[in-house]
Structures are given as C-alpha cells and as structure tokens.
Amino acid sequence: KMDPAEFRRRGKEMVDIISDYLENIEQRPVFPDVEPGYLRALVPQEAPEEPESFDEIVRDIERVIMPGVTHWHSPYFFAYFPTASSFPAMLADMLSGAIGCIGFSWAASPACTELETVMLDWLGKMLKLPEEFLAGTAGQGGGVIQGTASEATLIALLAARTRTVKKIQAENPGTDEEDILPKLVAYASDQAHSSVERAGLIGGVKMKMIPSDDKFAARGEALRQTIEADKAAGLIPFYFCATLGTTPSCAFDRISELGPICNSENIWMHIDAAYAGSAFICPEFRHLLNGVEFADSFNFNPHKWLLVNFDCSAMWVKKRADIVGAFKMDPLYLKHDHQESGLVTDYRHWQIPLGRRFRSLKMWFVFRMYGLKGLQQYIRKHVSLAKEFESLVRSDQRFEISAEVVLGLVCFRLKGSNALNEKLLKRINDTRKIHLVPCHLSGSFVLRFAVCARTTESKHIQFAWKHIAEIASQLLQEPRQ
Predict the structure, then answer these.
(1) Residue 335: which pLDDT band, with cuts at 50, 70 and 90?
(2) Phi and psi dihedrals of 476, rounded to 5?
(3) Residues forming beta bridges with residue 458, ordered by sequence position
(4) Within 86-218, where are the H helices?
(5) pLDDT mean over 143-151
(6) Out of 3.40.50.300, 3.30.450.20, 3.40.640.10, 3.30.420.270, which CATH number does the structure's domain 101-357 have?
(7) Band (355; pLDDT cuts 50, 70, 90)
(8) CA atoms of 317 and 297, how far apart (whole Å)
(9) Residue 208: in which H helix or E strand, if any?
(10) Beta-bridge partner residues of 145
C-alpha cells in the first residue's frame, strides 16, 4: 500500500503526467479510433489477487485508457459545448479529495457549507443577479452547487410541483395530491435540452413544448396561448423552463416576455443558461439576462465555460424555503445544534443526493487566481474566435450560416441537401483531426462548431476551416449518387 512518503513522490509524478498530457494534447487524434468493447480485451477478467505496483498502473494509462479517450481539452475539439478546465481548479479538486468531507449539513463540515454560500454570492454579484437571489446574511434566497444543469432543472420542477400542490390544498382543504398531480402541466421551448423533458418524466408530470420563432426562441404569445388552452381543458400550469443559449443553436428565449406571464399565472419560471450563463459576467452580454428578475430560479454551469472543472453547476433561488419545503427530511442522526439559525444552510435539503463534495474550493481558487477581469478576457477570446470562424464560413459561397452567432457557437452547413451535410460531417469526424457534432434546425441538418478548449487559438480555427473546406471540395467534386 502507499504510505505518505510514496504519495508525495507519486503525487509529483502524477502532476507531471497531467502536465505532459495537456501540453501535448494536440498531437493526439481528437477522437478515438476504437470499436465498442476494445477495453475489455486489454485488461484481465478479474481484479488481481496480489497488489500491483504504481509503475505498472502508470504504464497502463497509455496502453488501456488513452486509446479510448475523446480529448475534450484538445484545441481541435469543437463538439457539444466546452467543459471547463484550469490548473487552479485541478489543484482545488486535489484538496477537496484529500479533505474528503461529505458536506450534507453545516455540522458535517462548516467550511464546506459556508464557502459554498459565499462563492454563490460572489458569482451572483459577478452576474449582477437581483439581490433576492443572494443569501447575504439575511436574504431569503441563495445559491447552491448542483452536479449538472439537468439536476437543477429537475430540482426546480419538483419544488414547483410541491409548492403548487400545497397551494391548491390550502385553497381546497381535503383535496388529495393524487387528484392534483395528473392535472399539472409544465412547459419548455421546443429547443430546450432533452433533460428538461426528462425532468417531466421523472417528476411524473405532463411536459409541453412551446413552438419557437424563426430565431429559435420561445416567445410570450406562444406560451400564453398554450396556457389558456390548457386551463380551459382543466389542466393546472405550474412550471416553465426558459433556456438562455439553447444546445442546438445558442438561441435565447425571450424571458422579458415570458416572465410576466409566469408571474401573473403563478407559474414557477426556471432559467437554464447552462452554457451561455458564464458570458453574462461580461457587461456587453449581460443584457441577455434581462428578465431574470421574473424568475424563481436560475442556473448555469461554471463547469462549461468559467474555468471550473466538472462538476460545478450553480443554481440560485429567490426563496430557499420553496426548495427546502420540497425535500426536507430531518432524522435524528442528521440533526445538529445550529440548524435553525439564520446563518446556517443544510444543503442536503437543496438537492437529490444526500452527500456532496467540497466543490466550492474550485470556485474559490479559480475566482482568486483569474479575477473577474481574467475570466471576462477568457470569454471574450472564445467569442472572438467564433466570430473569426463565422467570417471564414461567410467568405465561402458554398456554405451558409444557419443561426445568429452570439457567443462561442457557430451553426453552419453546405448549401444543399441534408444527405450532403451528413456525408460532410462523417468525413470530417472520420479523419479524427477535428471533432464536431450536428443538430437539426428548421428541418435542416446543421454542423455545430463550438469553441471549447482553454488553449484554442486563431491557428486552430484556421486549421479547422481549411480542413472542412478541403473535405467539402472533395465531396462536391464527386459524382452525385
């Protein structure tokens, strides 16, 4: 087994291994060339009886693991959305792992709880969130770190469901929950992430998709019409999930139109800004968050675009009592002396699991080592790289831009059939020099180009475009099938 002396030595070695991996990542094919089941053939069928050495394990990293890794932090990775990575966050994760507390309550580790509350206030102030979302020392709202945006969406839906059921029961004593639940209906844009629909499945409620406009945004009038039709049919609208920065095209639902409708109908409005939210720390993008004052809850992922390694999904609520009211269970073994004091939050009441890691350390390290200006600079650089790629696409008459480029995502395609674009994407990904994923917009098969890695530079954008254009040329010269 490993003693502290060997841990010191091996820990330093691992930092070197990680540094070498990240420094040389662009030499590796961005997408793995393996078939399903490749790994099982490379390892024994059972765990070893006798201990093995650390050297043997390290040797197997290259042999077993690396051939099957999609290198998300390669500057040639342009798929999905970014996943954040920075050295301060990695160091903080090491400390979190070493402290190893399970911070379900204040008493379980006071620093774990208190730093989280303060970091969510820091971040809320960077975003210029309304005061109601901040905990401060006397506020009714506050922030919490969830694992993912999907969790935040589900937590908000379940809290909204509980709030609505309690309200109806208070107004109609004797009404059973079983009579109410089948009538509940939740809403989201037809561009919302699949996890929103999944939250409805898990929450056991109807979820209806609101048709988006020609900019792929959900609008007030479309929501109003659906609500009125549903109320006439005897349903009870209770939750709307608005998206700022949709996954297919980075579109923005019009929350300034949608919010007042939700407020007047007593519908919980949750805002999912998983990717785009990081950009709102820049004054020039903050207007995209106008209307957040109407929301009951707001969420985005610092682990996407704010240099805080996964997992770290920041969620704020205006009234923490609404969340706690939905999930609170207080067995004797979890009680402690300070739990009713105003300064103390027990985060187990704000989430689905009981246990939680010391994730706020990552935020503390990153915010201090980059500063607000450094974080803003990072966002602006990615946006300018996306604009550079957009201008390259626009300069080639064979291609078209499929959605407005607002932040770090460019949606584009070859003018022509969906089949042609499917073939283009397959050829691009088969070469393994860059990695892209597609989406559907208004019936068209579209290629998404997201600026993802912390180390992406103009030269990588230029390389990617040259590569795409060359493959397109080959494809267009081939006889049509």
Answers:
(1) low
(2) -75, -20
(3) none
(4) 87-99, 110-126, 149-171, 177-180, 194-203
(5) 92
(6) 3.40.640.10
(7) confident
(8) 4
(9) strand 206-210
(10) 314
Q: Rounded CA gap, 282 and 273, in Å? A: 15
DSSP string, 62-108: IIIIGGG---TTSTTB-SSS-----HHHHHHHHHHHHH----SSTTT
375 forms beta bridges with: none
Domain boundaries, the chain: 4-69, 101-357, 371-477
Instruction: Give, to the nearest 10 degrees, the angle between helix 458-477 and helix 418-431.
Output: 130
Complete edge-to-edge strand list for the sheet that includes strand 297-300: 142-146, 313-317, 297-300, 268-272, 236-243, 184-189, 206-210
The mean pLDDT value of the chain amounts to 92
Residue with tokens 């908000």: 156
Mean pLDDT, residues 415-419 taken together: 95
* Tokens 């109908």 belong to residue: 265
In the structure encoding, which two tokens stand for residue 218, read together? 């959900």
Cis preceding-peptide flag for 214 (omega within 30 of 0) = no
| CB within 8 Å of 347: residues ≥ 6 apart | 103, 104, 105, 113, 116, 144, 356
CATH of domain 371-477: 3.90.1150.10
Where is 238: in which H helix or E strand?
Answer: strand 236-243
Tell me the residue ranges of DSSP E strands in 9-52: none
- What is the per-residue DSSP string for 307-361? SPPSS-EEEEES-HHHHHHHH----GGG--TTTTSTT---GGGGSSSS----THH
pLDDT of residue 418 exceeding 80 = yes
**DSSP assigned state of 435:** B
Q: Is the dihedral of CA 381, 385, 387, 391 positive or negative?
A: positive
Sign of the CA dihedral running 339, 341, 345, 349? positive
Distance separating alpha carbons of residues 315 and 417, to the nearest angstrom: 41
4-69 CATH fold: dopa decarboxylase, N-terminal domain (1.20.1340)
Task: Out of 280-289, 317-326, 459-468, pick the least confident.
Answer: 317-326
For residue 344, what pLDDT is reported?
A: 59
